[in-house]
Amino acid sequence: MAHVPESLKKYVCVHCSVTHAGTPIHLDGGEHSFEPPESCGACGGSEFVPASEWIHHHK
Ligand SMILES: [Zn+2]
Predict the structure, then answer these.
(1) How far is the CA of 10 from the centre of ligand 1 (A)?
(2) Centroid of ligand 1 to alpha carbon of 14 (angstroms)
(3) Domain ranges of the chain
């Protein structure tokens, strides 16, 4: 049975506020993490903040 991540981490583009799903990265020991996308599909920006931190980041 495949391991299903308990929650999919999301990242918000700091330039246009579009939300992107993080890319799951498998680590040693069965752990997993997420990486933001390389670039925003909407504006081409490359700066992201985790969605959970967006409300704090927002100016
Ligand atoms: Zn963007």
Answers:
(1) 13
(2) 7
(3) 10-57
